[in-house]
Amino acid sequence: MIRPCDQEDVTQVVRLAVLMGRAGPDEEVAERIHRIGTLPDHLLCVAGRCGGLIGYAWAQDYGPHLRTGEALVRIHDLFVEPGMRRRGVGKELFTYARRWAAGRGATYLQWQASRDALPFYAALGLAGDPCPDPEHPFFEIVLG
Fold first, then answer.
1. Got the DSSP string for the chain?
2. How far, in Å, CA of 118 to CA of 90, rounded?
3. How far apart (Å, rounded) are the C-alpha atoms in residues 46 and 98?
4. pLDDT higher at 121 or 134
5. Which has more confidence, 135 or 29?
6. Residue 50 pLDDT > 80, yes or no?
7. Average of pLDDT values for 74-78?
8. Are 46 and 15 in contact (CB under 8 A)?
9. How many CB atoms lie within 10 A of CB 97?
């Protein structure tokens, strides 16, 4: 089940963020999760199974572009605990973030992915474009 993150989830989201990698001290990560979870232009949602959290997604609505007016949402994190992958959880998190972006009137949904995540996105029918960081291809989809 995918749902918005609440304050009782912070400790478990910290654990997942640390598993994802490049996280700072737990207290600092917890403070950021708490703060981001209260911002109206951010989505922080979680995937729960069997009483615990096994994944999360974080997206940010950047609003309309200055010149074009086209709105952009960027997925910053999408992570599922390694032992719980290949069960549809990542797809559910991605779909939730995509619907959130579309519901906010976004024109584009963008993100970068690690090479390890490329098979996941390929299974969704998505392919990234090369960017200056070859280890993290760029993805963009147009939302209708």
1. -EEE--GGGHHHHHHHHHHHS----HHHHHHHHHHHTT-TTEEEEEEEETTEEEEEEEEEEEEE-TTT--EEEEEEEEEE-GGG-SSSHHHHHHHHHHHHHHHTT-SEEEEE--GGGHHHHHHTT--PBP-SSTTS-EEEEE--
2. 12
3. 14
4. 121
5. 29
6. no
7. 98
8. no
9. 24
Q: Let me know if 38 is exposed, middle or buried by CB neighbors in 10 A (0-12, 13-18, 19+).
A: exposed
d(CA 116, CA 82): 11
Sign of the Cα torsion 110, 115, 117, 122 reads: positive
What is the CATH architecture assignment of 2-142?
3-Layer(aba) Sandwich (3.40)
In one letter, which amino acid is 69?
Answer: G
- Residue 10, pLDDT > 80, answer yes
Q: Tokens for 25, please give them.
A: 């001290």
Residue with tokens 């990234």: 128
Contact at 8 Å (CB) between 78 and 120? no
